[in-house]
Structures are given as C-alpha cells and as structure tokens.
Write a structure and sequence with these properties.
Radius of gyration of chain B: 27 Å
Helix content of chain A: 25-40%
Number of domains of chain B: 3
Helix content of chain B: over 70%
Oligomer: heterodimer
Number of helices of chain A: 18
Strand order of the largest sheet of chain B: 1-2
Largest interface: A-B, 72 and 84 residues
Order of helices and strands of chain B: HHHHHHHHEEHHHHHHHH
Number of helices of chain B: 16
Shape of chain A: extended
Largest sheet of chain B: 2 strands, antiparallel
Structural class of chain B: mainly alpha
Number of domains of chain A: 4
C-alpha cells in the first residue's frame, strides 16, 4: 500500500507548478505527463493546484452590441422609470420657468431698494446691478470652472437704458451656481443647469481600501469634503474594498477613510477636475489600541477584533485574520439577544440570515437579521464554539456557514438550518 | 565576454576588479549577461540579496535543469542566456532571499502571498478551518523549521523560477493537502474500488478475457504520455473535460475530440489484435462486448501492473517519443 504514496520519484512542487503553467520544456513535459498518467497522487495535486486558474484568466470582453440585446429586466425598468422622472421634471421646469422672472424681479427689487421713481431708475440701474454682482463673484470663481464664471458686465451696460425689470432675466445665469434654486428656475436655467450637472457628473473620486497586508477592507466609511464649500459626500467600500463617489463639483477635496479596528486615513487636497475621476487607493494601518477603544466603545466584540489584528501584526507566523469574513461580523449593532438567555459568543451573518451560538454552546438561527430566533439542534456532539461565514471561495458550492464544535469537528450549512459534517474535517 | 564583465565592474565600482566573486565571474562568462543588470532587474536590493548570491543561485538552477535542454545535449551561451532571461528573476530573488532568512524578503513574501494562499488553501480543503490550518502549516515549513544536519532547509531554495512563485506555493499546498488526505483517508477509499466479477461468466468467456487482456496490454503500451494521461484522468479520476483541458492547456472541445479519436482508435486496435490472435471478426466484436465489470478487475490490475512496467521502462518510451 505504501507504494501508493511513494511509488518512485515524483516531480517536485516546482516542476508541477511549471507544468501547470505550461512553461516546461518539451522533454520535461513528456516526462511529467508520463508520470501523471501513472500516478493518481500527482494527478490529484495537479487538479488541486490549478483550482483558481479560471479566476486568473480574464473573460473575453463581450462586444457592446451584444450587451444591448441581453435581457435585463431590472435595469430596463429602472431606466424607464428614470426617463419618466426626468421628463416630468423637465416638463415642470419649463412650465414653471415662465412666471419665474417676475418673482425674481420682484424679490430682488424688494431687497435692493425701495422702488425709485421710473425716471431715476434709468440712471441708477447700472450701479445697482454692479453692486448686486460684486458680492457674488468670489463664490462663482470657486464653484464654477473659469470659463463659466466670467460674469457678463455687458447686459447691464447694454440694458442701461432699459426698464428696471429687464436686467434681471439677464442676471440669473450669473447668479445661478451659488443659489441653486434660481439657476434652475430662470428662463435659460434648464439648459445652464444641465450643462452644469454634466460637468459635475463626470467628476468624482474612486479607489480601493486595503489593509497593510494588501487585503481589501469592505464597509469602510469614506467621506469627501469640499475644501471651499464644506459640502461633504459619503460612501462606503463594497465587498471588494472599492468605492466611488460620483457627481462631485470640481474642486479640492479632503478624503477621509475610516474602518473599525484601523486608524483613519486622511488625504487632504485632492484636486478633482471636471470630467475626471480622481483615483485614490488608501491603505489603512492597524489601529493603535487607544484609538480602537474610542472608536468601538459601544461594542465589546470589537476589542477582540482589534486585538487579533494587532497580534497578527506582531509576527508573520501568527494566524491570519481573514479580513472580509471577520470584519463583516464586527458590526456594532450585532449584539444579539438569544432565547436561551445566555450571551451570544460567536455569530455569523450573510444577508438576512444570522447564525449565533451562545455561551452554553447551543446554536440559534434567524432569518430576519436577528429579530426572531429559532434553536437549531444538530447531529454534532458537544458545544458549538465558533460559527464562521466564509468568504466566497471558488470550489465550495453553497457553503454559507461553517461551525466548529468543542470535540473538534466541522459542519457546513447552506442555509443555517440544515447542517452536514464537513467532508474533510481536520 | 570579458568586455562585458569589465564594463559591469566599471559601472558599479570603478577601478576595483576584485569585488567579483567566483560566482559572478562564472555567471558572466557562461551567459554573456552582465550580472549587474540581472541583479537590478530582479530587484534583489529590496530583498537584501547580494550579487554573488543571486549569481550562484541562478547558476545552480541552470545546472539543475541543463539550461532547459534535454540531459544529453550541451547548452551554448545563447541557450544559457535565453534560459536565464526567461526565468522569473524577481520571484527567484525573493525565494532565494527568503531561503537565506532575510528579514526584508520575509516581510515582502508574507505581504504578497498570505492572502492569496489562504484563499487557495480554503478552496482546496473545502472549509475555512481546515484551509486556514493548511495555510498556517505552510509558513513554518517554508521558513525551513525542519533541520537537516544542523542546517535550516527551506523548500523555497528549490524554486526554479520557471513557473510563478505563487504557482509553486499553490502546488506545495496541494501536495500537503493530498499527502494529508492519503494518510488519513486511505482505508476508506480502497474497498469501494474492488468490485466483484459477475458470478455467472461463461467458461468460454474466460478465454476471451484472457485474449482481451493481452490485447489491452499491448494496445495501452503503444500509447504516448498524453494519451495515457487522458485515459487515466477521464476513466480513473472521472475528471470533467474542463478540468482536463486546463491541465493540458487546450480547449475542452479539443479534449473531447481527442478522447473520441483515442477511444475509437483503441477499439480498432483491440479488434485488430484480437483478430490477429485468431478470433473471427464477429468473435472479436463479441469479445469487446464483454461485461465491463469483468474487465474492470483486469483494467485495475493492468494499471497497477503498467505502473511498474512504466517505471521500469520510463526512460525508454520518453526517448522513443522524442525521436
């Protein structure tokens, strides 16, 4: 029997890896194949070692015209709804645009000065308009791209001899960017607004959030603050650690990235240009203990989280915290009240399903994010000591939850209710 | 070649000739490549690997694989240079520095491979706990905790740079996993394979089976390595076309076509051989229709036997195919 394990000279890991990657010279490749034909042991290794191959190979891009004909009910419905909403909005704007100039004219007139007699108005109007424009200019220059910010002194001059009401409709496009409402309400407003928002749509910040080991951090809070206006935009990173904030007004932004258990990352003065996406990849450092305590005062679970991360930093040979799985479990709202009246010591969540074990080692299951619980009685012996929701792993079908019991055994489940023993429990 | 060596000496430390160690001089003379350039390309400085260490490591690798040529050929300088250029120098430098226990190298190594390898291990082992344990057990082994004659031996020193370092590590992981699986699961798997023969096999069929066995033996012996691999992967391991296609790096459809051609050719060969053994065509056809469970034992036996035969004649068929 033992010749099954050592029947002769097996190719070493190096040769097998080179064989799998197709870089062996021909004579060695033939040798390797000859051996593989005879040795089930090495065949097994070859299959196992190339498990992740399809993920390395990029998919061939689908031609864009093929994408047009794909059935996509959800997207199509959303697009249709968006079209309806936008056209309704436009229709309303155009409808409401006509009476608007009078409103603005009335309001400005009321603000500026008591309406002078008509004869004086013709002389004083240029000054009046000048005065009205000057305080707004600084805002304009900050917010608008320079080309759009050039104020037109010509309308007042041209309309110098005209009635008091007339300069005002010429003024709104200048007023527009600062006070947003008038911009959309004025007669040329819809067009100016659409041009403006196009410029803003193109601008944005995107990037990836990682930890020092290069693992991505999901659910990190990202906050971009406009230096000039103080407006803040927030986002969170997705499961691949990526985030993007679109629709920014061009300008300089301070970016702040925070995630539990990590020191926050601040990158000031990111220059966001119109029509461009600034790319900012941030690497969060493992948080200092003091910092971690202030961040997570609400949830005692997190201390262990940060502790694990800090220990992991101490030496390369320590256990690796699989970041995505455990960070997902580290949400502050996850202190569950279990029916057994014992505190929950370990839990795992996936979508709305939550599986938790209490200090007595009983397992509970909830399919509505922890509102109602049901006790799960498995076939295992002893206590449940750890429940894991593994990251999406190629090759493991339907594996959603995994639990480990006290006399060590591993059990797997696809839905949290029905459990089966792991095929190769160590 | 001399000019190359003096030039490389001149660029780094002008006027000083004796920093050249034997390994570096040997390297430059053999390959005609300036070691300085190779050293920088492999980013050895970042992992704390000296020029002579890199040079001797590369020479050792080249020597081990005869610079990519069959053992009976002797490589020329162009072949040597090509072989060395084709290596993944950066990975080689990292592996060698790790094997020598350099701190910077280990930091880089862990940062690069910890996450992907843990994922690979989880995928191989089929569960998070087992996967993490598998991956964790790999780091100390890579560091070389097994001492041989008082010397720390790291398997990373055996990495040749022909494939990627990640692939090497993955293959090592797979080896450990299969080793472990075989050690613990062997007893449970074997009995299922030995199926009993159909009890009411007619006496006349005994002869047929005997005939068939010899015919099979001869037919299988004439197959080349890839065909044998196809057969074992498909029939013995019950792998899918996709899995096989990934291993031999052709498309699934090609595998399918080859399998079809191979099986029909096998059948044809068997028929001819049976007829050559004195059976009529009808009898030969009939012999091929024997209950496969009867042959099953023979096939298994044949494979066990052919394993040994193949080992004894392992050198010869490979040589025959090459010519």
């Amino acid at each position: 029997m033992s010749e099954q394990i050592h029947p002769g000279i097996h190719p070493d890991a190096d040769a097998l890896a080179a064989f799998i990657e197709g870089v062996l010279p021909e004579h060695e490749r033939v040798q390797c194949l000859t051996h593989l034909a005879e040795c089930a042991h090495c065949r097994e290794i070859v299959y196992l070692a190339q498990v992740q191959e399809p993920f390395a190979a990029a998919k061939a891009p689908v031609p864009f015209w093929r994408r047009l004909f794909r059935p996509m009910p959800v997207t199509a419905a959303i697009a249709a709804a968006a079209v309806v909403v936008v056209s309704l909005g436009l229709y309303r704007m155009i409808r409401s645009a006509e009476p608007q100039p009078q409103v603005i004219a009335d309001r400005t007139a009321a603000i500026e000065a008591p309406p002078p007699p008509k004869t004086e108005a013709t002389k004083e109007k240029p000054h009046l308009v000048e005065r009205k424009l000057t305080p707004q200019l600084p805002h304009l220059e900050r917010v608008l791209p320079p080309a759009a910010a050039v104020p037109s002194p010509s309308p007042p001059q041209a309309g110098a001899g005209v009635d008091a009401i007339q300069p005002v409709p010429a003024a709104p496009p200048v007023q527009a960017p600062d006070a947003r409402a008038p911009a959309t309400l004025a007669v040329p407003g819809p067009f100016a607004a659409s041009r403006f928002s196009n410029a803003a749509d193109g601008a944005g910040i995107s990037g990836t959030v990682t930890d020092p080991a290069g693992a991505v951090i999901p659910k990190a809070q990202i906050e971009a603050k406009n230096e000039a206006t103080g407006a803040t935009y927030t986002s969170t990173s997705d499961t691949r650690g990526q985030f993007s904030i679109a629709g920014l007004v061009p300008g300089r932004y301070d970016l702040r990235v925070e995630s539990m258990g990590f020191a926050s990352y601040v990158k000031p003065a990111i220059d966001v240009q119109p029509q461009t996406i600034a790319k900012v990849d941030s690497t969060l450092q493992v948080g200092a203990m003091a910092e971690a305590v202030t961040v997570i005062a609400a949830s005692p679970r997190l201390k262990t989280e940060t502790g694990a991360a800090a220990i992991a930093r101490m030496g390369p040979l320590n256990r690796l915290p699989v970041s995505s799985a455990r960070n997902q479990g580290a949400q502050p709202e996850s202190v569950y009240l279990l029916p057994g009246k014992h505190p929950a010591v370990t839990f795992a969540a996936k979508d709305k399903l939550v599986v938790a074990a209490d200090s007595e080692g009983s397992l509970f299951f909830s399919d509505n994010e922890g509102k109602n619980w049901k006790r799960v009685r498995g076939k295992w012996n002893g206590k449940v000591v750890r429940v894991i929701s593994p990251p999406d792993v190629p090759g493991s079908r339907n594996l959603v939850f995994e639990l480990i019991t006290d006399p060590a055994s591993t059990w797997l489940s696809a839905n949290g209710r029905h459990w089966s023993a792991a095929p190769a429990s160590r | 070649m001399d000019s190359a060596s003096t030039q490389s000496a001149g660029t780094s430390t002008p006027g000083v000739e004796n920093w050249h160690s034997d390994a570096e001089r040997c390297f430059t003379e053999l390959s005609g490549l300036p070691i300085e350039e190779i050293w920088q390309e492999s980013r050895s400085a970042a992992v704390d690997l000296k020029r002579d260490e890199l040079a001797s490591a590369l020479l050792t690798i080249g020597d081990r694989y005869n610079f990519g040529l069959a053992p009976d050929l002797s490589p020329g300088p162009a072949q040597i240079a090509n072989f060395l250029r084709a290596l993944r120098l950066e990975d080689v430098a990292l592996a060698q520095a790790c094997a020598l226990g350099r701190d910077a190298a280990w930091r880089q190594f862990m940062a690069r491979f910890r996450e992907p390898l843990t994922r690979a291990a989880i995928a191989m082992a089929g569960s998070v706990a087992a996967g993490e344990e598998l991956a964790d057990s790999l780091w100390p082994e890579m560091f070389g905790l097994n001492e041989r004659a008082g010397q720390r031996v790291s398997p990373l020193a055996g990495y040749s740079g022909r494939g990627s370092l990640l692939g090497f590590l993955r293959a090592t992981l797979a080896q450990r996993n299969v080793d472990w699986h075989r050690r613990t699961h062997r007893e449970t798997e074997l009995p299922a394979r030995e199926l009993p023969a159909v009890p009411n096999a007619a006496v006349s069929e005994e002869m047929d089976i005997l005939n068939l066995r010899t015919a099979l033996n001869e037919t299988l012996a004439m197959l080349n390595a890839e065909e044998r691999f196809l057969l074992s992967a498909w029939f013995l391991d019950q792998r899918t076309l996709l899995e096989i296609s990934r291993v031999i790096r052709v498309h699934e459809a090609t595998v399918s076509r080859r399998m079809q051609r191979l099986t029909s050719r096998l059948r044809q060969e068997l028929l001819t051989r049976l007829q050559a053994n004195g059976l009529s065509q009808a009898a030969a056809e009939e012999a091929l229709d024997i209950d496969p469970r009867d042959i099953d034992i023979n096939m298994r036996g044949l494979l066990q036997a052919s394993r040994r035969e193949a080992f004894s004649e392992k050198g010869t068929p490979a040589d025959r195919e090459e010519t």
